[in-house]
Inverse folding.
């Protein structure tokens, strides 16, 4: 995957502003950058969220999702960052940023990448609660969100 | 017979009490679905791989289906539905 299309997985936090600037730096052909940031949602006494992943597969899966997005929309750059390890409520978990000539492709591709990431990238969340730890269950609404792209061709 | 590496993740790893193993898989268990059934037949904690449970699989780090064929040297992973993002 070339320079403008990058995925990474790390324990470290990320700087959204710096990532968005880097995506469009030195280019005048990019007319739109759309981004999504996912955070650890607090509540129900949540103490922390731990993210496990399948190291050998994760970046390969993310890169594959980005490649599929590039087949569907004319994209000029994509940046995907996903954190792993133990995160506190309010912490950033994931960022998807998409650069394109126009906003339509940028918005749609950003949502597509998130929908596919949620259902196909090998990450698992475990919640730390006052009564103990429990694995987060997958949601059918996430499968439905990913499935709608099967018929909803841009 | 095909020697494969098998990995387990998240709640499934905790349920079976094993994160990875190397197994000589008999020819008749040469697909993801057949291998899953073979592992489940160990009984006890391995019933976490029962047919009714939501279990996903990957072969050589690519999402696989029950009919996906397994060959010697492959890395097969079993895990619950993903919950990232």
């Amino acid at each position: 995957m070339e320079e403008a299309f990058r995925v990474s997985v790390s324990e470290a936090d990320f700087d959204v502003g710096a990532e968005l600037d880097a995506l469009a730096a030195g280019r005048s052909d990019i007319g739109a950058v759309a981004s999504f940031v996912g955070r650890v949602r607090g509540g129900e006494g949540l103490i922390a969220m731990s993210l496990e992943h399948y190291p050998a597969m994760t970046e390969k899966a993310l890169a594959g999702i980005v490649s599929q997005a590039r087949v569907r929309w004319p994209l000029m750059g994509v940046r995907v960052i996903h954190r792993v390890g133990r995160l506190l409520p309010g912490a950033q978990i994931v960022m998807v940023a998409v650069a394109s000539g126009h906003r339509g492709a940028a918005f749609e591709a950003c949502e597509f990448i998130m929908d596919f990431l949620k259902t196909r990238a090998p990450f698992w969340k475990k919640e730390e609660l006052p009564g103990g730890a429990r694995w987060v269950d997958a949601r059918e609404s996430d499968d439905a969100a990913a499935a709608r792209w099967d018929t909803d061709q841009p | 017979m095909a020697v494969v590496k098998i990995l387990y993740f998240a709640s499934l790893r905790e349920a079976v009490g094993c994160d990875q193993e190397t197994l000589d898989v008999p020819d008749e268990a040469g697909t993801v679905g057949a291998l899953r059934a073979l592992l489940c037949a160990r009984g006890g904690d391995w019933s976490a791989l029962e047919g009714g449970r939501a279990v996903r699989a990957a072969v050589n780090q690519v999402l696989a289906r029950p009919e996906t064929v397994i060959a010697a040297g492959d890395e097969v992973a079993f895990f619950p539905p993903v919950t990232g993002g």
Summary: Strands of chain B lie at 2-8, 20-25, 56-59, 62-64, 75-79.
